[in-house]
Amino acid sequence: MMEASPTTDPPAGELELVPENIKDAKEGGPAFHCDLCDVELLYTIAQAFLPGLATACVDNTTGDVFRSPGSVAADIRKEMVEYLKQRSETFVAESVVLDGGPEAEASDHPYDIIAYLVEDFASSKRNLFSRVSGWLLSETREDKIDDFAQEMEINGFWSMDKRKAVAQTLLKNVDFKNEFHCDMKYDSADELALHVPTCSYRSMNCENEGCDARFSANQAENHDSVCPFKIIPCEQKCLDSIMRREMDRHCITVCLMKLVNCPFYSVGCKSAIPQCKIEDHLSENLHSHMLLILKGIHKEASVEVLRERVEQIEKASSGNLADARNVRSLKFRVKDLDQQLGPLEVGGTNKTDEEATKTPTKLESLEVNDTNNDTEKAAETEVINSEAEPSLEVTSTNKDSEEAATTEIKDSEAKLQSVEVAALSKDIEEASKTDIKDTEAMPQH
């Protein structure tokens, strides 16, 4: 636990900074300044103070057995506020003088500038032990800083309102482009009072139910465009209006315009359609769904034949197919009607085309066969003539090697038969002569 002022802030005079140094009064200029700043940025800067203070306190007392972070928290907080005030007032001048230094390299955004100053102050409070040991890189250090910052937050050691007051002064000092605070000045308090209700940096609360965000008036439109609690029309154009943070869940679960697959996806319909328009899709695409089913039944049929079959089935059904809303029911009815219509002439059109294509081929084949027959007959005639008139020499310049071989074989067979017949005739003649001689030699009685 912290040992010094763990639950209370120091006197207001020690911490509160005058938001604007009123120099214009001495110079005779406007003396009343609008102190309003960007609410969200102010809150972000104020949140950075506690971690910075905790870091300074922990690093300042590490290795010291007589002091704890809580015992030095009040003193270091006072030093921190004084340091930040002085550095913020001279930061712009330092950046110009030290051109090329660390300040020049830093971002010109007010939060980045103030965060750099807080870190610089915390570094200046490190004791000798923190600098020479490996403490700065240890996980124990980070855990101890987080625990001490949380402890100060819980005990209310430095309230958010007090931190915002400091942040407001620092923001005005470093926001040299006047992008995050109002720079209006007035000659009287009444004029300033009239300005505040219309100032673009006045604080506003989000009007969406459930949202507790606070922001400047000039940021209202930006917040409204991202507020998770705002009720907006469905992104998928259904009739519902949904809280922005619930939009994703609505679009993928209950939205009527959610895209779904057609019930006939399994048979080939790849259409993605809004859930609320499934009935319209089924009615408009009954013909195509029937065609897909018939393709599965008659795989070899052409598309033209199947389309004719679809028309026949539609006529035979008398309009009773429109109430079939799923693959099973429509497939059953289509199969039943398809069977009633009788066998399908699969590829009838294609067969006619094939036959028309084959006809010239057949004619060519017949012509070739007739030519071959004529050639064979002419060859046989020539063979016969060669046997009857051996003195004629048969010559043919158009015969191929196969026909020549066939002729030679036939000639050889004819000669062999002639030789055998001659030998047989000779034997018969000799036998006859022998019989005659024997008859003559027999004695006459």
Spatial strand arrangement across the major sheet: 1-2
Distance between the termini: 179 Å
Mean pLDDT: 78
Helical content class: 55-70%
Q: What is the beta-strand fraction?
A: under 5%
Q: How would the global form be characterised?
A: elongated
The residue ranges in which pLDDT falls below 50 over 5 or more consecutive positions are: 1-8, 10-26, 348-354, 359-364, 383-399
By oligomeric state, this entry counts as: single chain
Sequence of secondary-structure elements:
HHEHHHHHHHHEHEEHEEHEEHHHHHH
Q: Determine the number of helices (DSSP H or I, runs of at least 4 residues).
A: 19
What kind of sheet is the major sheet? Answer: 2 strands, antiparallel
Number of strands: 8
Assign the structural class, choosing from mainly alpha, mainly beta, alpha/beta, alpha+beta, or little secondary structure: mainly alpha
Radius of gyration: 56 Å
